[in-house]
């Protein structure tokens, strides 16, 4: 009987113990589910930042460029300068063609054309009536032709009509951009470029220096393709980011030359000009580019386009997309975290910019305030 009673007691207590274990398991499950949910939400919302921070772990840096030293001093002959680079001198200069895709960088293009006008034989420029992301846009260059009348004899211009794109287009912006570059190849053919001419391929805000163009024009034995290392600026020439703008290229033209904006060789001429990104006069131009160019997916929230925020970012030297630096080592990543250091120097900048400083004060140190 006692054994039966113990067995009976155990049979009565067993469901209670099971319920207790189930309750304890449920109590532990709730915080686990909460932590998991919060983690999933955080990773989803901040995936880009996490990815950029961990980039040194998952990405391999590209092969380093072989940098060609760049020599220049005032009042030296081109013969001397070419010899310093290990090149000969031509009996007559090559023709130089400067080819760009244009969106709305009107002021930078004005500086570019004035700076390079004495040295470039043809300015080839293509603009479309819609952005890479499908937003309709005005033909800014065409509507301001009078501003470039000084260079009209050298300008080869065309407009690319795009009728089937809109902001909800499913086409990838980079594919649309590739279509623009193919159209520019066709325009180059109509520009009169010939084998042996030099072709500079760049975005409008990537400006080779006159000293660089002179080397391309006069020196015999230059590489058939080389990248141009440009000083990299953001918002104005007050915020010098680094020396790592490399996409601009100079080609000795052949029948196989195609317009590209990617790595094409391991050779790069050092200190060859300036790249001033997001260097606009008005706040609305910043907002337009943020929505218009190939990286428009970086605009994660509407607040990014708020004029007060954009003005604050410009004056602080912060990242306009609130992103971490795109670097391949933790050392470089940590060095570039935070605002871009200010520079008080306006030396070794485009000479046209300095001669017309009153008109371009917004691009010089202390000129960060922009009209809204």
From TrEMBL:
Domain of life, per lineage: Eukaryota
GO BP term, example: N-acetylglucosamine metabolic process
Cellular component, GO, one term: membrane
Calcium is among the record's keywords: no
Entry keywords, A to Z: Membrane, Transmembrane, Transmembrane helix
PANTHER family attached to this UniProt entry: BETA-1,4-MANNOSYL-GLYCOPROTEIN BETA-1,4-N-ACETYLGLUCOSAMINYL-TRANSFERASE (PTHR12224), BETA-1,4-N-ACETYLGLUCOSAMINYLTRANSFERASE FAMILY PROTEIN (PTHR12224:SF25)
Name of the protein: Beta-1,4-mannosyl-glycoprotein 4-beta-N-acetylglucosaminyltransferase
Protein species of origin: Triticum urartu (Red wild einkorn)
Phylogenetic lineage: Eukaryota, Viridiplantae, Streptophyta, Embryophyta, Tracheophyta
């Amino acid at each position: 009987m006692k054994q039966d009673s113990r067995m009976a007691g155990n049979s009565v207590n067993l469901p209670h113990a099971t319920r207790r274990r189930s309750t304890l398991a449920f109590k532990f499950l709730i915080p686990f589910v909460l932590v998991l949910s919060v983690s999933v939400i955080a990773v989803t919302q901040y995936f880009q930042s996490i990815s950029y921070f961990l980039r040194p772990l998952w990405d391999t840096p590209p092969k380093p460029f072989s940098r060609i030293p760049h020599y220049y001093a005032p009042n030296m002959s081109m013969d001397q300068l070419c010899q310093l680079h290990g090149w000969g001198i031509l009996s007559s200069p090559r023709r130089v063609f400067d080819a760009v895709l244009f969106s709305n960088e009107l002021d930078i293009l004005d500086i570019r054309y004035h700076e390079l006008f004495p040295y470039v034989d043809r300015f080839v420029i293509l603009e479309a009536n819609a952005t890479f992301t499908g937003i309709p846009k005005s033909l800014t260059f065409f509507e301001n032709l009078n501003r470039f009348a000084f260079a009209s004899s050298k300008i080869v211009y065309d407009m690319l009509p795009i009728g089937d794109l809109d902001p909800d287009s499913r086409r990838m912006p980079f594919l649309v951009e590739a279509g623009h570059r193919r159209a520019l190849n066709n325009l180059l053919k109509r520009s009169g470029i010939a084998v042996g001419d030099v072709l500079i391929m760049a975005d409008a805000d990537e400006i080779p220096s006159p000293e660089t163009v002179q080397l391309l024009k006069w020196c015999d034995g230059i590489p058939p393709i080389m990248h141009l290392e440009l000083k990299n600026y953001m918002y104005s020439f007050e915020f010098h980011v680094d020396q790592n703008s490399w996409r601009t290229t100079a080609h000795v033209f052949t029948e196989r030359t195609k317009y590209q904006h990617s790595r094409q060789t391991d050779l790069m001429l050092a200190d060859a000009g300036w790249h001033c990104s997001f260097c606009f006069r008005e706040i609305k131009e910043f907002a337009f580019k943020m929505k218009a160019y190939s990286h428009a997916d970086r605009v994660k929230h509407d607040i990014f386009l708020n004029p007060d925020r954009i003005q604050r970012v410009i004056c602080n030297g912060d990242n306009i997309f609130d992103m971490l630096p795109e670097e391949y080592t933790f050392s470089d990543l940590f060095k570039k975290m935070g605002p871009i250091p200010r520079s008080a120097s306006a030396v070794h900048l485009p000479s046209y910019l300095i001669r017309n400083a009153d008109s371009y004060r917004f691009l010089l140190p202390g000129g960060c305030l922009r009209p809204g």
